[in-house]
Design goal:
By secondary structure, the chain is α+β, with helices and mostly antiparallel strands. The protein is built from ten helices and ten strands. α4 links the parallel β2 and β3. The protein is globular, with a radius of gyration of 21 Å. It catalyses: 2-formamido-N(1)-(5-O-phospho-beta-D-ribosyl)acetamidine + ATP = 5-amino-1-(5-phospho-beta-D-ribosyl)imidazole + ADP + phosphate + H(+).
């Protein structure tokens, strides 16, 4: 009779996975300094008490890091990947005018490497602490034969809430409104299939230091949203500039309106090396082009919004003609 097999012999070590949950709990607990889960961490589902809200509207979002993750793994930038994962979902949530309350992650690996996973979660925790969002749980899946050795699957999920009267409605946008843009910290986590192709085709032009600089994590814009709130301004809309760039991310809610945008030159040497090898028009539909967040307000509020966070500047106006047009100053 053949020897009977164990789960561990099949490539999955459930005891290692259980130990990992305990190992990361101290990291995770840092995200509960202010907001806290209603019940203990580690249950089958996380719960959050919304009684502090009078008319809570739940907002949700999920995202990943895309093919940027391949470069992050190659250059051992795991903390950066964790930060990207958080920012891509949290930024989407706060475009509503609400708060990011809880975040969950999914990590798929061929074999659990506790050190690497702890570093990923360490990056997540650093960002979650800064925006007062609780790491509520997640899933680490060990899948030998499905996820190749050395690779990681990564997804993030965020749950937020907003008071119903405070929920932003892009239908409030009108021609003549001002578009205030806030600087990005790089390509963020979008357009990396093109970035990777450019670097591979022109590898001799890029130093390792330049490539690592391109891995700067997606900027969190919770400080901008808090600053806008503190100024007493309710925007007509806010946009997180991701895949599709300034054009698509505005056209999705402008309907029959449009925008004329003039953005500053993107002063980043490594970024400009990449852009030199991209199509003059396609780049505006692929990258954030140096602007990762926009706030649309009446002209009277533009100055206050520009001061709401670092890198704020007026980049254009809403028009009554359908379509968004973008050009670089100068």
């Amino acid at each position: 009779m053949a020897d009977k097999m164990t789960y561990k012999q099949a490539g999955v070590d459930i005891h290692e996975a259980a130990e990992l949950v305990g190992d990361i709990n101290d990291l995770r607990a840092r995200t509960e300094s202010s907001r806290k889960l209603l019940q203990a961490f580690g249950m089958f589902a996380a719960s959050y008490d919304l009684s502090d809200y009078k008319e809570p509207v739940i907002v949700t979002g999920c995202d990943g890091v895309g093919t940027k993750l391949e470069v992050q793994l190659k250059y051992d930038a795991l903390e950066s990947a964790g930060k990207d994962l958080v920012a891509m979902s949290v930024n989407d949530i706060i475009t509503t005018g609400g708060d990011a309350l809880m975040f969950l992650d999914y990590i798929g690996v061929g074999k659990i490497d506790k050190s690497k996973i702890q570093r990923l979660i360490g990056g997540m925790v650093e960002y979650l602490e800064s925006c007062n969002c609780v790491l509520a749980g997640g899933e680490t899946a060990e899948m030998p034969g499905i996820v190749p050795d050395g690779m990681i699957e990564l997804s993030g999920f965020c749950i937020g809430a907003v008071e119903k009267p405070d929920l932003l409605d892009p239908k409030a946008v009108t021609p003549g409104d001002v578009v205030v843009g806030f600087a990005s910290d790089g390509f963020h986590a979008n357009g990396w299939s093109l970035v990777r192709r450019v670097i591979e085709a022109n590898r001799s032009e890029f130093t390792d230091e330049e490539i690592v600089s391109l891995l700067a994590p997606t900027r969190l814009y919770h400080d901008v949203v808090a600053g806008v709130r503190a100024a007493g301004v309710k925007p007509h809309a806010m946009a997180h500039i991701t895949g599709g760039g300034l054009i698509e991310n505005h056209e999705r809610f402008l309907g029959d309106m449009g925008a004329e945008l003039e953005i500053p030159y993107w002063d980043n040497d490594a970024v400009q090396k990449v852009l030199a090898h991209t199509d003059d028009e396609d780049r505006f539909n692929t990258f954030n082009m140096g602007i990762g967040w926009t706030v649309i307000v009446p002209e009277a509020d533009a100055e206050a919004v520009c001061a709401a966070g670092p890198g704020g500047t007026v980049i254009g106006r809403i028009t009554d003609t359908k379509g968004v047009k973008v050009r670089v100053k100068g």
